[in-house]
Amino acid sequence: MKNRVGVVGIVVDDRENIHTVNSILSQHADIIVGRMGIPHKERDIAVISLIVDGSTDRIGALTGQLGKVAGIRVRSALSRQ
Fold it and tell me: What is the pTM of this model?
């Protein structure tokens, strides 16, 4: 299966679950090319953006695990090729 490149956006509404998010990201570190995380202290949220390079199955596993965490919203956009 061919790898795809894309971006994954994560909004952490419940910052108490940030450790769970970081654990999941560590498990998928081999497909994460870059990461930027910004805490928005005034709103008590965090926003994380990832650049990923992996199969649709691997990227789907990452976003699926993140989507199951309470207080986390995740969306992805992938290249067509």
Answer: 0.91
Per-residue three-class SS string for the chain? CCCEEEEEEEEECCHHHHHHHHHHHHHCHHHEEEEEEEEECCCCEEEEEEEEEECHHHHHHHHHHHHCCCCEEEEEEECCC
Tell me, what's the pLDDT at 23?
97
pLDDT confidence of residue 56: 94
CATH top-level class for 4-78? Answer: alpha beta
The residue among 19, 5, 30, 3 whose CA lies nearest residue 70 is 19
Q: Where are the domains of the chain?
A: 4-78
Predicted confidence (pLDDT) per residue in 27-58, tens digit: 999 999 999 999 999 999 999 999 999 999 99
